[in-house]
Every structure is written in structure tokens, then in C-alpha cells.
Amino acid sequence: MEEQAPSPVMKPPTKSKGILRWTKENLFNTWYNALFTLLAVVFLYVVFKGLLTWAFTEANWGVIPANLQIFLVGAYPKDEIWRVWIVIYTLGLLLGLSAGIWGGLALRLALVIGGVGGGVGIILAFFPAALSNRFGLLGGVALLAGSLFLGRGRKELRLWVLGGWLLSFPWTMIWLHGFAGLPTVFTSNWGGLLLTLILAAVGIVVSFPLGVLLALGRRSNLPAIKWFSTAYIETVRGVPLVTILFMAQIMVPIFLPDFRLDKILRAMLGITLFSAAYMAENVRGGLQAIPKGQHEAAHALGLNYPLTMLLIVLPQALRSVIPAIVGQFISLFKDTSLVTVIGLLDLLGIAKTVIANPDWLGLQAEVYLFAAAIYFVFSYSMSYISQRIEDALGVG
Amino acid sequence: MENNLPKSVSEKIPFWRDVRVLRVLFQVGFLIGILLLAGILYMNMLRGLRGLGLTLNLDFLNDEAGFGISEGIAYEPSDTYLRAFWVGVINTIKVSIIGIVCATILGLVVGIARLSSNWLVRNIAAIYVECFRNIPLLLQILFWYTAVILQLPSVRQSFTFFGGVFINQRGVYLPSPQATSGVQIWLGCLAGGVILAVILYLVRLRKLRQMEQPGFPAKWALPAFLLVAFVGWFLTPGRPFTWELPALKGFNFAGGTYLSPEFSALLIGLVIYTGAFIAEVVRSGIQAVAKGQREAAKAIGLNEFQTLRLIVLPQALRVIAPPLTSQYLNLTKNSSLAVAIGFPDLFNVGNTMMNQTGQSIPIFGMIMMSYLIISLTTSAYMNWYNRRINQIGR
User: Fold this and answer.
1) Contact B134 A376 (CB under 8 A)
2) Residues of chain A whose pLDDT is less than 70?
3) Does A372 lie at the interface with B, CB-CB under 8 angstroms?
4) What's the ipTM?
5) Coil, strand or helix: which one is B112?
6) CA-derived radius of gyration, chain A
7) pLDDT for A156-165, tens place per residue?
8) Which chain A residues in 330-369 lie under 8 Å from chain B, judged by CB atoms?
């Protein structure tokens, strides 16, 4: 028997490439990429040198800690800020429990919020001139983590937590506004990040069902409803939000003289009516993607129109457009800054008043960059969560 | 046969359970509700207007406006309100068109850069996109206006580029081309160049068809045209155009093209913000082109640029066109943020008119109509473009 020669053993291809190899493959693989790399390095050097020199030698960051409170809550009275903390703790508790019970989206949201809150809390704790109760944020994060741990696997708490979410909105408003014996804080004193978040939350919560109704209306085969929905959606989408906000300010008192809506409520009305039209278009995209057979099957089972929509069509349609809806939420959050133009003191409005303060003249760049950083953290977190949902659902 | 059917089917359905009747009833109810609401609002409006002592008509448009507009087409405070509004409309269209062109170029470059094989370029582009699309546009515009442009040096210490571009806190001064008497000679040269180029293009196209080879049909025509234009430029006595340079006269620059700080800030804000969104549109469009298309292009020997120009971009354009349209519309509508920094666009002028006349209802109507007309025209054009590129090969 002729013995077969063993095949020569070869080493597996190396996976780690070494920094030189990586540089060659990713930065200098062709002559024009080498050129681009050099240009990019020069660009980065110029930009970062200028930015860092400015940030560490010329900029006066003292304006931020000195005005931190009004950036966060506007003119909300100092003695009543504990009410804001109660609201934050309530929401933290609810979010923690939901994250523990359902996992998934709620868990991601809790992790992102907890991470950001914890990070900011640690930074604040080292700041000399921060809020008097600067450990409050860390307490909130601890509460979030604690309730997450408590809620794990407690399916029987489901209904309680859902009810809690439903009540959380009036609860928030009652605490912020004041009730029985508590001094009333008028909405004109709400401001800063607090107002931005309230405007965004109201806009999201109210415009979503409105948008779904409008989308169903546009897809309806009843001509009157279809025409009305289409006309509403197209008109609103054709004009800028600033126009709608000004109209809400000027026209509501003309058309509804008997309702004394205050400025903030009128702004909420404008934002909600505007956002609903965009929401409707996103939902319509999802509705169009549902095969006709689903409608027909539901019909065959004897379901009427509301039940077909509620049980069969909408759950599938909404699931497929979650990324688009979250994108709409992000742009709604950014759009709340437009209330500055009608004179409300949201985060951007507060930034403008701080700049106009004679004690802090000439610090536009510092103040705007700080406000921009806050907006960035919120919108980037939302788009990060949306990306994760997209990956998890396999849609988008 | 009919007797075999169940009783409930053969019976006539009562009208309150007949779907056809219900549909009509439901819609009639809906319409009555809407009309009732509109009626209440209308009565309230009449009551409010009586209280203010106003009547609902458009006569005020022919009155003298009496307020100044800082920039735009020819206008005097003694002109009518209608003229003032028209100046605002033209300003909105101007900033939108320039903004759309610049944002498209920026977005295209960044979108392609995000897919570059160069790690550094790819990540710089990604950081740009993530930073600027997650910060509100109004904040960005205010930043460019108050923290950058208004902080620039004064007129006497302007930044100067190439001896003809001056940037200071009063705005940007650019050289503008001025036609001389020789411009007709040069235009004649250009016309000749175009004729030559068309002939060369057709000749080469025919030749390529005969040889049945791929190629760039304008390979001869383009250089020929440029050569004629170039030679003609220097043969024209006194050159066809001279650059009128801005020059310091007294306390300010005179001559050349002038961009006000408000216009510059609005334009920079709109272009950088919308550019980030367009970059994402371009990137997803290019990624939507099937991988096999690139591989096939590589297999038949096209290089990277040819693949991009001949294979990827034409197909990506079909995916890109609809979302690009909505970005263009967004840019146009976002130009209304001009009201925050005092650029006299149509919304800002309309707002001033409302403050002066109190005629908020007709003026809001005019503003909304203007935006709707601009939006509908843009989307009609883009839909036409979309249809055109979709016809190819489908």
C-alpha cells in the first residue's frame, strides 16, 4: 500500500491585520484615497485646532452653571422645583417597571435614559455651582434601576402600569400647575427644557391618534371623508410650521373668542395640528403596504370596519412604519424650538434671553452650543433607539 | 329556488342596517358637522372683526405700505402693500433656489463620501450628518447669525480673499461680472462653438454606433467647445466680461455683489441642515442599487468612476427623486424661519403687513396660498422629472 502523503498544514489566514496594514487598506489603498486622507487630516487639524483653542482659552463657560436652573425649568419658582422632581421620579418609576415587565423597546428606552441621566448626574455632582439638589438626578437613576429590578417578570403588574401611564399626563400637569393648597405656577412661568419636553410630549401623544384617524380617512372609500382628510393633510403639509404657529396665536382668539386659551396651549394646538398631517402620511405608507387579502379575510370572518382596522390592519401597518413615526417624533421635538419665534421661553427661547442678559454679553456661541448639545442628546438618543427597533423588528 | 334561501336574506334589509344607506347618512352627518363648525367659526370671526372695526376685503393691498424692506427687487416705502408682498415672495424664491442648488451639491458630495472606502472621509461625513440633522434648524440659523456673522470684524478689518471677496459683519461682498462692449463678439464665438460641438457629438455618436463600442459620446465635442470659448475669450478686444470688484468707499463697500448678513446666515443654515438630510437620501439611494450591478460593472471592466456615473447613479436617481423632492419642499418652507433673524422673506413681510393693517385673515390666506403654489410647482416639476427618469429602461 502506498501511503498517502499528508497534505501540508497551512496556517489559517490572520484575522488581525496590524495597524500598518489597516492604514494601508483603509486610508491609502489608491492614489486618490491617499490624497483624500491628507486633505481630511489638514481639514481636521484646522477645525479642531480652532475649536479647541477657542473652547479652552477664549470661551467663558461660566454662563452655563450660573444659568443652569433657568435653562432647565425657566422661570419656575425655586421653592417649587421639588414638584418637578416628583414628576421625574414618577415617570422614572413607571419606565423602570415597564422595562422590567415588557423588556424590548421599554428596556432600551430605560437604558438610554438611565445612561444619559447617570452620566449627566455624575458630571453635575462635580460642578460647584450646579442645582442645589444636584444628587437628585442620580437618585432618579437609582429609582429607575430599582424599579426595573422589581418589575422583572411581574406580569401581574401590567394593567397597573398601563393605567399609570394613562394617568401620568394629568398627574404631571396637576403637579406642575399646582392643586389644593399648593401655590399655582402659571404656564407662563414654565420654560426651558421643561417646556420643550412638555410641548414635545403633548404633540406626540395627541398627534399620533389624530394622524391615524386622518390616514384612515384618506384611505376611506367614503368620498366626503376622503376629500376632507386629503385637503387637510395636503394644506398643512404645504405650509411652514411658523405660519401655523402664528395662525394659532392670532386666529384662535378671533375664531374662538369664548375660549381663553393661553399662549402655551395655543402653541400646543398649532404643533399638534401640524404634526398630525405628517403622522397621517407616515401611517398611510404603512396602510398601503398591507395586502388586500388581509382586509378581505377580516371581512370574511365577519369583522366590521372598526374591528378590522383595530385588530387586523393597524397592528401590522403601524409595526412596519415605526422607524418613520420615530423620525417624525424627532423632527417634532426639534420643531418645538420654533415656539421661540412666537415669544415662548422654551430651551431656545431661554438661550436667547440669557444672551440678551447684560451680565453675559457676547457669549452667543457658548450658550447656543450648550442648547445645541441638549437638543442633540435627545434627538440622537431617539434615533439610536429607533435604529435598534429597526434592527430588532427587521423592518425599515 | 328563492324559497331555499334563509329567511333573513330573502327579506328586505331595513334601511337602518343597509350599508349603502348608512354610508350616505354617515357622510351627510359628517358634512353637517363640518359645516356647523365652520359656521360657528365664521360667526365668531364676524363678531371679532366688528369688535375691531375691520371689514373683510382686499382693498388695503392698494394702500401705501410705508415700511422699508432691507433687500430684494426695487421697492420704495411709498409703494403699495401688494408690491411689498411681492418683494417678499421674490426673496423667498431666491433664497430657496440658491439654497436647493447648494444643498444638493453638498448632500451629493457628503452622501457619496459616506460610502467611500476611505475610513477617515467616511467618518467625517457621518459625523457631519449626525451632528447637523439632530440640532434644530432655528438654533443653527441663530447661531450662524448672532454667534458667527455678527461677530466678524468690522468693515475696515474685513477678511479678504483673492483680493476681491470681502467678508465682514455687514455681510459678504463678491466681485460681479460686468459685460463690456465686446461681449457680443464672444457670444458669437460661443454660438459657433455650440454648432461645432453638436456636429462633433453627432459624428462621434455615429462612429461609436458603427464600431458598437461603449464610450463617452461628448469626448470630442466638449473639449472643442471649451477650446473655442477659451480662444474667443482672449481674441475679444477688451475681454467680454470684467470683474467689478467691491471697493471701500467711505464707511462701506460699493460695487460687486452684496449678500446681507441675514441672507448669508439663512442660506448657510438652510444649506448645512438640508445638506445633511440630502446626504442620507443619496446614501440610501446608492445603497438601494443591487450589489450585483456593481459587480457586473466591475466584471465588464468599468473603473470606479465609470461604475458610479454609468451604472449606480442612474439607478439610484429613481430611488432618490421622491425623498429629494420632500427635502426641497422642506427647505423652501423652512426659509420662513427668516422671520427670526429679520430677512424679509414672504412670511416676514406678511407679518409686518399684519401688524400694520390688522388684516390678519386675508394676509394669512395670501401667505398660505403663496407657499402652497410654490410647493405644488416644485412637486409638479419633481414629479415630471421622476416620471422622466423612470421611463428609461422600464
Assistant:
1) yes
2) 1-7, 13-17, 127-134, 393-396
3) yes
4) 0.87
5) helix
6) 27
7) 888 888 888 8
8) 330, 334-335, 337-338, 340-341, 348, 351-352, 355, 364-365, 368-369
